[in-house]
Amino acid sequence: MDIIMTRRELLKAMTAAGLGLALTGYAGPALKKLMAEELARESNTPVIWLQGQGCTGDSVSLLNTVHPDIAEVLTETINLQFHPTVMASAGESSLQMCERAIKDQKGKFVLVVEGSLPLGADGHFCDIGETAGKPVSCIQWMKRLGPAASAVLAVGTCAAFGGIPAGKPNPTQANSVSQILPNATVINIPGCPAHPDWIVGTIAHVLLFGIPELDEHKRPKAFFSKLVHENCERRSYFEEQKFAKDYGDEGCLFELGCKGPIALCDAPIRSWNNKRNWCCRSGGPCIGCTQPTFPEHEGSGLYGCLPLSKTEGIPWARREEFAKTRS
Fold it and tell me: What does the alpha-carbon distance between residue 250 and residue 233 come to, in Å, rounded to a whole number?
């Protein structure tokens, strides 16, 4: 049976098939051009980006996006109306963009949140602007913008799961986006920071096709479905029980606290800085920054060695032999 597609349907189909590939830098010019054309049609969707309690690392990561570069993202992929770091306006004029989104664009804009959200001090550990001379907390903006948004993207582990600010003893009572907006359509894009491809790819998917397929922690499966350990270039050392004794040494980094056996993301394949490097290749262990348990990891911390019970899902012929060396 013949299948007839319009040009627009063809563009969307090709974009859907090539989106992840394009973001790794392997798409050819023709496919990238088609994607740009289709995204341009959808780029009227406004994006409001709030910064909570964080280091701005996710914004810096976004600025380092390569395929497409940040100029393409801002001019062809998204209609970024509010971002405290990169927007030209300031003060009351900038906050009017948020007010306009709430009043005139309900259900038509995407809210991006970076950083955790502190409940301590009535939320005033993190304020964004003033109204009638009084500071307005990030949480107050969240509670107004969140219900009005078509989707809420929690970018970075602080926004997605609380991250380092929520670590014990959590003096500011830092919370994740989902804790503040339990009924909102939240997509978590964790990472410390999140990879620019994860950010741009998820935003593009939301604009073109709606909410992507998510895992149990509301992470896009396209980026967070494989354990770091599965694709790690040092995995053969793990199987051979050849463990590094110090950072930068040859060998598996498991004994130095690598969280690859529990961390889900595609960093070993995608790499960072235009595919130059990633954590384990540079000699440092994976710290599991995409996991809800980061940074404490149930007591093992960033660099404490995982218990063997955390590797039970990984085929490991010499597990019993190694266990004897740990007892």
Answer: 11
